[in-house]
């Protein structure tokens, strides 16, 4: 199985410290006017806007061999589709995995916009079909439907998008939408339909993935849970004859350093800063804004006694500390470059082939991962060239997803 790596673009600020800290980049800080990171005032005539920083991150991802970048959608961050349209012209190969809430668009408008994006970018749009957080949070922004019903609507939505894409004259009548002879025509019809990702562990989410997703995405957590979700979605996809079609991806952070000790020191720095800044309580409050299944995941790993950062290892090199202090996606692979690579292989063996992996700050960590971790998953010739340049851990060129030894760390 081929592994592909995707970076992330920080659409709600760059977090080297705890979210809200004035030393971070962007203007999501507690006192934007007192920020010490890269911040623009977003006024006409400014030489610099936050998208210029995002452009650096996107270019770094491309230069370092990432296949694409994940753009998450949060109500307080920039909108992914707009940002990626701007960045498509500043990059050459990078694919944009745009979080995309079907309830915010009409099926036809989304189809036409996606076709134009594909023409502008050379077919680099990937949709991550999301459903947002809690019902309350969604209602605040005008979403009338409850959780399960949103998935019924989303399945119909994708029926329509696929119908419009494949037919010049498409007819459909569902509970939420109908179509009476519309469809892409001419040059737009020749654009490739976006690759479709979806996520979520509720029944509705898994049914949507089973019928429509090319990639079902999970957040990293204990491998047992991940394996169970993958098996469940594969079984559901079989109903649509798609068990062999659907593939799987995972979102995870990384703290990868020369040695395990250096990586643990960085994990501890985040943990200590979070505890000092009181973000643990804030994360618990924020968990009430999550969907039911995400809150259950948060509680699964954060409900225990935590005295120090290393109480949050659920197994060697798999650290739930970011979730504990409120930084999504929650889990990180933490350790030496070799042990982070081994962790990637362990998760790949569960059936995962797309790895959305990054650290903080995204720009610097993309270079770090690009120089020390990604080459371990490339063709042997390239890896040995890098080995000769003196990386010095003596590791041979590694074929994709071979096993690797793990140093023990954590409390089980
Ligand atoms: C890799 C990944 C990326 C996600 N990105 C977003 C996002 O950008 N915005 C969002 O609101 N939800 C995002 N989600 C959340 C899911 O779309 C989904 O709403 C969530 O997993 C809860 O679904 P459920 O309650 O149906 O199980 C993401 C999930 C995963 C695994």
From TrEMBL:
Residues 43-352 form the Luciferase-like domain. Residues 17-41 are annotated as: Disordered. Residues 32-41 have a biased composition (Polar residues). Pfam families: Bac_luciferase. InterPro entries: Luciferase-like_dom, Luciferase-like_sf, SsuD_RutA_monooxygenase. The keyword Zinc does not apply. Keywords: Flavoprotein, FMN, Monooxygenase, Oxidoreductase. This is LLM class flavin-dependent oxidoreductase. It comes from Novosphingobium clariflavum. The lineage of its organism: Bacteria, Pseudomonadati, Pseudomonadota, Alphaproteobacteria, Sphingomonadales.
């Amino acid at each position: 199985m081929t592994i592909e790596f995707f970076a992330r673009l920080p659409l709600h600020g760059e977090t080297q410290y705890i979210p809200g800290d004035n030393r971070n980049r962007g203007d999501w800080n507690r006192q934007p006017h007192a920020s010490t990171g890269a911040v623009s005032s977003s006024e006409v005539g400014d030489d610099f806007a936050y998208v210029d920083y995002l452009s650096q991150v996107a270019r770094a991802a491309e230069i370092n061999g990432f296949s694409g970048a994940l753009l998450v959608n949060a109500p307080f961050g920039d909108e992914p589709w707009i940002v990626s349209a701007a960045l498509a012209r500043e990059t050459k190969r990078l694919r944009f995995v745009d979080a995309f809430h079907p309830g915010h668009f009409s099926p036809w408008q989304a189809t036409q916009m996606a076709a134009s994006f594909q023409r502008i970018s050379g077919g680099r749009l990937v949709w991550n079909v999301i459903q947002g957080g809690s019902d309350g949070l969604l209602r605040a922004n005008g979403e009338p439907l409850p959780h399960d019903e949103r998935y019924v609507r989303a399945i119909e939505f994708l029926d329509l998008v696929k119908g419009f894409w494949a037919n010049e004259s498409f007819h459909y009548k569902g509970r939420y939408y109908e179509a009476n002879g519309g469809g892409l025509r001419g040059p737009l019809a020749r654009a490739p339909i976006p690759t479709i990702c979806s996520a979520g562990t509720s029944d509705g989410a898994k049914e949507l993935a089973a019928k429509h997703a090319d990639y079902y995405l999970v957040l990293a957590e204990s491998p047992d849970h991940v394996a169970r979700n993958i098996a469940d979605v594969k079984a559901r996809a079989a109903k649509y004859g798609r068990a062999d079609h659907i593939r799987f991806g995972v979102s995870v952070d990384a703290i990868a350093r020369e040695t395990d000790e250096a990586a643990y020191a960085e994990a501890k720095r985040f943990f200590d800063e979070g505890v000092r800044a009181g973000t643990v309580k804030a994360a618990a409050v924020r968990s009430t804004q999550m969907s039911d299944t995400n809150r259950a995941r948060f509680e699964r790993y954060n409900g225990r006694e935590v005295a120090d950062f290393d109480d949050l290892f659920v197994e060697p090199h798999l650290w739930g500390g970011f979730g504990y202090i409120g930084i999504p996606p929650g889990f990180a692979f933490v350790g030496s470059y070799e042990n982070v690579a081994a962790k990637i292989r362990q998760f790949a063996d569960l059936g995962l082939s797309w790895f959305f992996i990054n650290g903080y700050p995204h720009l610097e960590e993309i270079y770090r991962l690009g120089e020390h971790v990604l080459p371990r998953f490339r063709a042997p010739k390239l890896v040995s060239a890098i080995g000769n340049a003196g990386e010095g851990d003596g590791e041979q060129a590694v074929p994709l997803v071979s096993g690797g030894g793990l140093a023990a760390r954590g409390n089980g």
